[in-house]
Amino acid sequence: xxxxxxxxxxxxxxxxxxxxxxxxxxxxxxxxxxxxxxxxxxxxxxxxxxxxxxxxxxxxxxxxxxxxxxxxxxxxxxxxxxxxxxxxxxxxxxxxxxxxxxxxxxxxxxxxxxxxxxxxxxxxxxxxxxxxxxxxxxxxxxxxxxxxxxxxxxxxxxxxxxxxxxxxxxxxxxxxxxxxxxxxxxxxxxxxxxxxxxxxxxxxxxxxxxxxxxxxxxxxxxxxxxxxxxxxxxxxxxxxxxxxxxxxxxxxxxxxxxxxxxxxxxxxxxxxxxxxxxxxxxxxxxxxxxxxxxxxxxxxxxxxxxxxxxxxxxxxxxxxxxxxxxxxxxxxxxxxxxxxxxxxx
Length: 345
Prior knowledge:
Elements: E1 2-4, E2 14-17, H1 29-44, E3 49-53, H2 56-73, H3 78-82, E4 85-89, E5 103-107, E6 110-117, H4 120-123, H5 128-137, E7 148-154, E8 160-162, E9 167-171, H6 172-175, H7 185-196, E10 200-204, E11 222-224, E12 229-234, H8 243-255, E13 265-270, E14 291-292, E15 296-301, H9 307-317, E16 322-327, H10 329-332, E17 343-344
Parallel strand pairs: 2-3, 3-4, 6-7, 9-10, 12-13, 15-16
Antiparallel strand pairs: 1-5, 2-17, 5-6, 8-9, 11-12, 14-15
């Protein structure tokens, strides 16, 4: 039996990619690297972290920054924290490892990693190094003991959600966009059934978040939090530009059912007030872009009034994990969130 694993399944660790000068972060490199130091330091308290970086010089620089930060904030834990960290020398174009890293699959109780193709959300940006990253990861000492499967299909993990029971949640205009694959819905479903064991598809459509350049990744709109619970982005302000869009989201989710025709439990999470960049452009802020680790959930915070409410709702969804808010407005300036910037491995 083939099963695409849900994100709450036990992880070997988390993958992150270090931001560098040759990426889109070059104009704000110090700021984003400072964010990543906080991001990594928080994750190290909860599980093993793999960081993709260019070479030993970059590795040494990251370690120096981490050592200084942990010494300043938690001297007694600094050595312990750093022992949960490993660097892997792999070139990258950008930091959004969620979309070019491997998917975790169980095949007859054997963990496998599946490597799909990546083309930077429809050839929007350079991607040659990102697309090669998973193949290089397959040679890592920990990971090469597992089977790896390669696919010609273009597929980003941020575009799909699964509940661990072979149900897939995704958006039509994203995974079926002609800038990804030349497949219709039936062909895509058959591929997912044959290779990932998907038995049921929950199709959403026409959902757009201002500032997003992924053609509508599902991880900004709706997330499985268990096999029968879906958290979704909600707006109750008619003056908000997303009001009608998110009303449609609720309507679409309300119409889908589980086995035995039961409806999913839907949990609304508020949309944040507008978050703007320095040019007053709206950024795609979404609390749904949270990250599930082994013992914690990291929740995006944007310095707005909905931060606390969103954090409290997500805490109730994961009572067995520690829920931690992390301000990620710096990460958001390039259009992504905590979920986009990480991947369970």
